[in-house]
Amino acid sequence: MLAATSAVVGVIWDISWHRTIGRDTFWTPAHLAIYLGGALAGAACGWLVLRTTFAGTAEEKAAAVTFWGFRGPLGAWVAIWGAIAMLASGPFDNWWHNAYGLDVKVLSPPHVILALGFTGIQLGALFLVQSLQNRAGEAGRRATGLLFAFGAGILVQNIAIMGIEQIAFPNSAHNGLYYKVAAAAFPLVLIAVARASRLKWAATATATAYLAISLVMIWVLQLFPATPKLAPVFNPVTHMVAPPFPLLLVVPAAALDILVQWWGPGRDWRLALFGGVTFVAVFFVAQWFFAEFLLTPYARNFWFGVDQWDYSSRVREWRYQFWRIREDPVTPTKLGIAAILAICSARIGLWWGNWMAGLRR
Amino acid sequence: MTGRAGRLALVGVIALIASAHVGSPDTYFEGAAGRYRVRVIVRTPGVVPGLAQITVRLLSPLPQGALPRRVLVLPVYWDPHTAAPPPPDVAQHVPGDSTLYSAALWLMRGGAYSVQVTVEGAAGSGTALVPVMAVATRRLALDKALGAALVGVGAFLFIGAVTLIGAAVRESGLEPGAVPDRRRTLRSRVAMGVATVVLALALVGGRVWWNGVDSEYRSGLYQPPHATATVRTAGGAKVLRLAIDDTSWTNAKRQWTPLVPDHGHLMHLFLVRDGTLAAFAHLHPLPLDSTTFEASLPPLERGRYRAYGEIVHESGFAETLVATVELDERAGTWRPTDPDDAWTTGNAKRETGNVVGLTDGSTMIWDRSPAPIVVDRDAPLRFVVNDPHGEPAMLEPYMGMAGHAMLTRDDGAVFVHLHPAGTVSLAALETFALRQPGDTVRGLLGARMTALEKGSGERGAVPDGATPMPGMHRGEPLPAPSSFSFPYAFPKPGHYRIWVQVKRSGRILTGVFDADVRPAR
Hints:
The complex is a heterodimer of chains A (361) and B (521). Chain A is an all-alpha fold. Chain A contains twelve helices and two strands.
């Protein structure tokens, strides 16, 4: 979990670094945090596997799965896979920069491999905690449940980072694409957590963890003085640029928790249908108006951290406007598509949640 | 991943025509930074955004005999809306060489950069501006070893992912100690099969994505605007016409800034006899409009010629248009379009020699040691002109310079126009030196540059504040030194021909030399 946290903090830090300072090397602290996550997860889980295989007690071996003759908890294997993917992405990314130029887009094939890598670490951490939660008695369930929600919060954060170009900025919150992307991505994790966790308000706790990680990063990063080191500088920033304010996922997450508690297991198609529609409806109302607030002068302060732009941005009126509302306005049809995506997402999330609810090793 | 890596392992480095010169993307500059004389080399990365490597050599004699305190470098991309530039980088001493400094330059946008090289020391502080063109010219090949390693790791991750999914379905839901039954084992195999298909589809999707990025990148590689050279007859004389017929140029919404004069000429056009390299002309066509340039054609022998048209944009971006033209018959009487036009024939036999007789009886000597010329190492391009009595000749500046050198490789893969100031375009340098914050309207700066040149009554006027160049003079009447050198390193091995042009007693004289350049070991 520490490795997963290190990786996600590193990624947010790195994005801020690119938006503020511009230039970097492999050895920036943000990169080190990311790769520390990989190395930590790989080393810890590698050690866990070796210990379980060669020096494990009978119980430890019994609570493990087999992989090419070695034994270890499923989560450890997934984290090891993620660590290897992360390490492999390093030289690939380096070649990519030399061949096609330094990063101009967040989404590139080597970055996807890196993202798959740290997603693997996050999932591995989640599975490890979940198998503990499932095997724990009543006493340990709350602690493991909270840890599980935190791990899921990191996963949600991860998804939000990957969708930075579509769903990060409040200026995009009046676009159809914004709700389609959010509807496809988030119900999956939130409803899976609500189903798998023993906590009553697991999805809400997950969304809260995501909110908390984001807020800490927004508040901490802004404190550090930094200046651009790359020309051309259009926006002479003086401190690290804060990441965009997180989405108000807490509201739809609470709605999903209520629905999951209400219906319980066994009526998953119905739950997916109502869960998906509810997510879109609640998220749309909450985010639509909250985004309007984020574009007002009341949000331009330390606490919300909005109106902070890259050193290479030509800051003009667009920063207080909704973008592309003529090309991609929100229409009933687009909300309908978003609802269908959310239903599919929720159904997959329920399958995943049911599987995690039965995870024992 | 594996498929993509394997495919790309077969792709070689794609080197295309470089910007201001042909096949020679690096920048060489020699000039003054205050009281310090510096030679600057910028090795461009070939990708944008990318990291260029800059080296700054302090040339002797050092002012007050002391090394400077520090050397700073800063690439500046001009835009009227930019805020203050970022802080410059301190170039680091190269170990083992007390006068050499190096740093990395971050070139983030395609276009013209002015790199500010500042030397601070006991002799004061001074800055030299070095124009650098940032363009994407190549796509790096995937190294075989790296490709194989990536394929190996990719295969491991693929098989690992399928195995993990199988293990997850088979065992992870079992109570500790329980053994998976036949049903679970079967489900696990089905899951592994499905995972294989899904992951394979993801790989195919990834490959399509990579291909898309690759083809988009390749289509964005720098190519000079397309130009066509033709010959027409006008009143018994032959006229060479170079027309820029590229759609990006002729489009009314084009992004190109207007051209600015380089030593009074909007275009420097070079003709090189293809194959034999036995004929050469340096002309200065006049613009008929913004796309068409014409020059009176000298009586060159019949044959196929390569034409190189050098132009400089108001943005400071310098580029070389490339075309070919067939001369069916020798032109008759030649009335040069411009007094700076010149041509020469000869040396088809490829006689190599360091001493060449010039048409006015003087001689040009290539002052070089017998040591071989090697790719990417300082080329010994120092020349001396002696009068018919063997005394140093009194030369006049030719377009503001002691000398001009044009060199090309046999096959035309390289063509470069050098000055004693290096490969940099002096017009580009002037745009950076003269630019003011208010120059937001296209043509404003160009008009000021033209007015300045006309006002000074000379070609190649150096603006106040601009760095004086070695071998470059503010006024034509000043004598030029009888010996001069060109800072340069050959980019590729092979056989080269070099035409060195000087001006003496009002005549433009051309010395022709040959050079064999060896590959670096």
